[in-house]
Specification:
The chain has 13 helices and 14 strands. It has helices at 17-30, 50-56, 68-82, 93-112, 127-138, 156-165, 241-253, 279-295, 298-316, 323-335, 366-369, 381-389, 391-400; strands at residues 8-12, 33-40, 61-66, 116-118, 143-145, 179-182, 187-190, 220-227, 230-234, 237-238, 259-265, 271-277, 341-348, 351-359.
C-alpha cells in the first residue's frame, strides 16, 4: 500500500516521548488523518490531559480505553496460574500488557475502518514484535506503520529535539534520559543511564516501592486467598481484580518487595538491562507457588514446572495470540482445579517468607509425613521399592563390569 493510499491511521498512544512525536510525524509523512488510542492498563497519572495533548499534537480524535480489569483477568491471572517467569526473574509486566493493548487498538481500527495501525516501539526492542504479531493475528489485512524503522530519528535525543522544534511537550528530558513504562503489574526502567552496567541508579527513580533500607523495621504479614489458582482475597477481604493488585502493590511496595535489576536476552538477539518494580507480582507468585506445593500431585506439578518457562517465553516473544499458548492454558487451568486455599506470607525489608499454607483439597498428610509412628507407611515396603527402582542401575553395573 503506497503512502497515498493511507487515509486514516490509528496510533498506539501513551503521551510519552516517542508516541507524541509519532502523532506529528505520521500526519506530516503520510498526509492522512491520525487517530490516537491510549489503552489504560494502570498507568495512573500518565493519562491526565492525554485527550487534549493528543489533539494538540495532530490527532483528530483520541480514544482512552479502560482495559485494567481485562488486563488482570485475561493476562495477569493466566500468568500467575502458569507461574510464568522469563529467565527465572522477570514477571512479564510489559510483555503481558502489550497483547491487551494491541487487542483494544485493533478494535478501534475496525470501528474507524482505518487503513493502518501504528506503534512507537523501536527497531531494537521486543515490543515491535509483540505489537505486530498481535496485529497480524487480530487485523491481518491492515498495514502496520513502524516509524522507528522509517524515520531519520535515531536516538532519544533526536526525538527530544524533534519535539522541541514543533513545541510538543514531552515528559523526558536530556537530564532524565531513561525510558519507563508503568502499569498495574509493574514499572520498568530501561535505556539511558541504565545502559552502563558498571553503575547503579538513583533512589528517586522508583515509583512503587521503598528501598529495603527504608522499609519498616517490623515484619508485615499478608494472607492471600485463592480459588482455582486465582487470587480472590487479601487478609480475608474479598477484592475485585484491579483492587486486589493495587492493594498488594501498596502492601508489598511499602516493605521494599519486588525490585529486580537484570540483564535479559531480548528476542531480537541482544542483551539489555532492565530494572523493574513488581511488588504485587512478587507476593502473588510466592503465595501461589506455596499453595500449588500442597494442592497439586507430584507428576502434574513437575510437568507444569517444566512448561512454565515455555509459557513465559511465548508471552515475552509476542506469541500470546497463538494456538500453543491457548493449548497450554487448557493444561494450566486443569492443573488449577484444586488450587484453592490461603497462604500467609511474612514481608520484611525486601524478603518474602511463607508462614502458613492451607488448601481445601490438600494432598499433605501430617499422619503420613510424620517421623513418628503411623498406621499408613510401612518402612519395610521401601526395600522392595528401592530394589525395583534401582534394578536398571544394578544390572548395568553388573553386566558392563
Amino acid at each position: 500500500m503506497a503512502n497515498g493510499n493511507i487515509k486514516k491511521v490509528v496510533v498506539a498512544y501513551s503521551g510519552g516521548l516517542d508516541t507524541s512525536v509519532i502523532l506529528s510525524w505520521v500526519k506530516e509523512h503520510y498526509n492522512c488523518e491520525v487517530i490516537a488510542c491510549c489503552v489504560d492498563v494502570g498507568q495512573g497519572n500518565e493519562l491526565k490531559g492525554l485527550n487534549e495533548k493528543a489533539k494538540s499534537t495532530g490527532a483528530s480524535r483520541c480514544y482512552i480505553v479502560d482495559a485494567k480489569e481485562e488486563f488482570v483477568t485475561d493476562y495477569i491471572y493466566p500468568a500467575i496460574k502458569a507461574e510464568a517467569l522469563y529467565e527465572d526473574r522477570y514477571y512479564l509486566g510489559t510483555a503481558l500488557a502489550r497483547p491487551v493493548i494491541a487487542k483494544k487498538i485493533a478494535d478501534i481500527v475496525k470501528k474507524e475502518k482505518a487503513d493502518a495501525v501504528c506503534h512507537g516501539a523501536t527497531g531494537k526492542g521486543n515490543d515491535q514484535v509483540r505489537f505486530e504479531l498481535a496485529f497480524k493475528a487480530l487485523i491481518p489485512n491492515v498495514k502496520i506503520v513502524a516509524p522507528w524503522r522509517e524515520w531519520e530519528i535515531r536516538s532519544r535525543e533526536d526525538a527530544i529535539n524533534y519535539a522541541k522544534e514543533r513545541n510538543i511537550p514531552v515528559p523526558v528530558t536530556k537530564s532524565k534520559p531513561y525510558s519507563s513504562d508503568a502499569n498495574l503489574w509493574h514499572v520498568s526502567y530501561e535505556g539511558g543511564i541504565l545502559e552502563n552496567l558498571s553503575k547503579g541508579y538513583d533512589e528517586f527513580m522508583f515509583k512503587m516501592t521503598v528501598s529495603p533500607e527504608k522499609a519498616p523495621n517490623k515484619s508485615a504479614y499478608v494472607t492471600i486467598d485463592f480459588e482455582k489458582g486465582i487470587p480472590v482475597a487479601v487478609n480475608s477481604k474479598k477484592l475485585k481484580p484491579v483492587e486486589l493488585i493495587k492493594k498488594l502493590n501498596e502492601i508489598a511496595g511499602a516493605n521494599g518487595i519486588g525490585r529486580i535489576d537484570i540483564i535479559e536476552n531480548r528476542l531480537v538477539g541482544m542483551k539489555s538491562r532492565g530494572v523493574y518494580e513488581s511488588p504485587a507480582a512478587t507476593v502473588l507468585y510466592a503465595a501461589h507457588k506455596e499453595l500449588e506445593s500442597i494442592a497439586i500431585d507430584r507428576d502434574t506439578l513437575h510437568f507444569k514446572q517444566a512448561l512454565a518457562p515455555k509459557y513465559a517465553e511465548m508471552a515475552y516473544y509476542g506469541l500470546w495470540f497463538s494456538p500453543l499458548r491457548e493449548a497450554l492454558d487448557v493444561f494450566v487451568n486443569s492443573s488449577q482445579k484444586y488450587v484453592t486455599g490461603s497462604v500467609k506470607l511474612k514481608l520484611y525489608k525486601g524478603n518474602v517468607t511463607p508462614v502458613s499454607r492451607t488448601a481445601k483439597y490438600s494432598l499433605y498428610s501430617e499422619k503420613l509425613a510424620t517421623f513418628e509412628k503411623d498406621e499408613i507407611y510401612n518402612h519395610k515396603d521401601a526395600e522392595g521399592f528401592i530394589n525395583l527402582w534401582g534394578l536398571p542401575t544394578k544390572v548395568q553395573a553388573m553386566l558392563r563390569k
